[in-house]
Design a protein that fits this description.
The protein has three helices and six strands. By secondary structure, the protein is an alpha+beta fold. The strands form two sheets. A four-stranded mixed β-sheet has the order 3-6-4-5.
């Protein structure tokens, strides 16, 4: 993978503007903060993010992929102010689960998610070289 950073652009913090990659594609459906029994791990955004990211890592492992193979994450949150208030804790959780790998990312606030009580859903695309 190669990070695409146009000359003169301010380097983004916590994500990449673009990624160039070649290999086998792995698509991970939106993951929410529930465990293997489809039970939410708790009501808090940060704990749900940790679980959603752990779920992504588990699905990637089924394809022989690792967090470093993630090329794109799309985050859907129901409350961007909740996200902004917890951004430092979210960053710690992200680094705990994904490491110091920062693919392209989008964060979108939505009116609601399908599962009652879900505060975040994260989709991933990975490329295994």
């Amino acid at each position: 993978m190669r990070v695409l950073q146009p000359p003169g652009w301010v380097k983004p913090i916590g994500y990449a503007n673009g990624i160039e990659a070649q290999g086998r594609l792995v698509f991970v459906a939106g993951q929410i903060g529930w465990n293997a029994k489809a039970e939410l791990v708790g009501p808090g955004l940060v704990e749900q993010i940790r679980q959603a990211l752990e779920n992504i890592v588990a699905v990637l492992a089924e394809a022989g992929a690792k967090p470093a193979h993630i090329a794109r994450l799309t985050w859907y949150v129901v409350d961007k102010s909740d996200y902004n208030q917890n951004v430092k804790a979210i960053g710690r959780v992200y680094r705990d689960v994904i490491g110091a790998h920062y693919p392209t990312m989008s964060l979108i606030q939505v009116a609601d998610l399908l599962e009652p009580g879900a505060k975040v859903e994260i989709e991933a695309t990975a490329v295994i070289p």
